[in-house]
Amino acid sequence: MTTLQESIEVDVPVSTAYNQWTQFESFPHFMKGVESVEQIDETSLHFRTDIAGVKREYNAQITDQLPDRRIAWVSTDKPRNAGAVSFEALGPEQTRVSVSLEWEPEGLVEKTGSAVGADSHQVTADLKRFKEFIESRGIETGAWRSSVSRGEVESTEEEAGFAAQAPALHTGSAPHLPTPSPQRPAGVDPLLDDSDPTNPS
Q1: Of 14, 154, 193, 194, whose CB has the highest number of CB atoms within 10 Å?
Q2: Radius of gyration in angstroms for the set of CA atoms belonging to the chain, rounded to a whole number
C-alpha cells in the first residue's frame, strides 16, 4: 500500500471549507483525473477517473463525517483506496485542510508513478486548485451538515438549522438536507415571536 499526507491553508472559514468538501460531485472542478463523482445515496459514491491515461470506475463509502472536523471514506471495490480530510480553524477566516490517502497502485504506470512521487505531486496540485476554487468563490456551492459514524448517518439539530438559515447554498445533492418546516418557512427569522409580530408602523 502507498500512503501520503498533504495539507494546505485556505483563506475561508472552517465551515466554508468543510461544506465544500461535502459536495462530492464538485470534485472534478479541482481534482485532476477525476472525471465525475455520482452521489448514489447519503454515504455511497461512484467515481470515474482518468489518471495518466488509465480509466477506472469504483464505488466508495463515507465511513465517518464530523461537521467542520473530518470526512473519511473507503473504496468498496478495486482499486483499493481509503482516505480522510481534516479541517482545522486557524482563525475566523483561515483553515488548514489536511488530506491523508492510502491506496494500492495497480499496473506498471501507477506503480512507477508512485515510486517517483507523482502521487504526492498530484495531491499537492489538487489542494492548490481547491484553494483557488473556494477562495475565488468565497462561499461553498452547497453543504451537508449531518454526521456519519461507521457508515451510518446521524442527523443533527445543526443540519436542520443550517437548512433554514441558508437553503440556497445547497444546490448539489438535494436529498441531504431536510425541507424547511411548514410551520416556519425558509427565511423566517426564528427569533421573532409569530404569535405577536412586531408592528412596523
Answers
A1: 14
A2: 19
